[in-house]
């Protein structure tokens, strides 16, 4: 079970890093606002751009794992517009593409 727990954390971490890297950058607010919630969605907004990966990965490592529900969310009002192709820096549906890239990596 330890291997399954570690694999779950690895996949979840890959999902976070992939979605963050795919997020278009202007002020870094959208990229920096990806939040990790364990068991519930984190709806807070962080406009400081302090690094979603630097904050999220340790949370996944310490609280995530096998049997845990981990939410990766972004509560900025314009994140949906970005995903719909509003920015020339990322393709339309970059969130879904990121998800499928991680899924395909672990098939």
Question: What Rg, in angstroms, do the CA atoms define?
Answer: 14 Å
Tally of helical runs = 5
Distance between the termini: 19 Å
Global outline: globular
Give the overall pLDDT as a whole number: 94
Largest sheet features: 2 strands, antiparallel
Helical/strand content category: mainly alpha
| Overall number of strands | 2
User: Segments where pLDDT lies below 50 for 5+ residues?
Assistant: none
As an assembly, this protein is single chain
**Numbering strands along the chain, what is their spatial order in the largest sheet?**
1-2
Strand content: 5-15%
Order of helices and strands: HHEHEHH
> Which percent range fits the helix content?
40-55%
Short description:
By secondary structure, the protein is mainly alpha-helical. It has helices at residues 2-22, 29-32, 52-63, 79-83, 94-105, and strands spanning 35-38, 70-73. The chain is built from five helices and two strands, in the order ααβαβαα.
Give a quick set of tags describing it:
107 residues, mainly alpha, two-stranded antiparallel sheet, 7% strand
Task: Summarize the SSE layout with pairings.
Elements (H helix, E strand, L loop, with lengths): L1 H21 L6 H4 L2 E4 L13 H12 L6 E4 L5 H5 L10 H12 L2
Antiparallel strand pairs: 1-2
Helix pairs in contact: 1-3, 1-5
Could you explain how this protein is built, in words?
The chain has a two-stranded antiparallel ribbon. The chain has five helices and two strands; from the N terminus they run H-H-E-H-E-H-H. With 107 residues, the chain is mainly α.
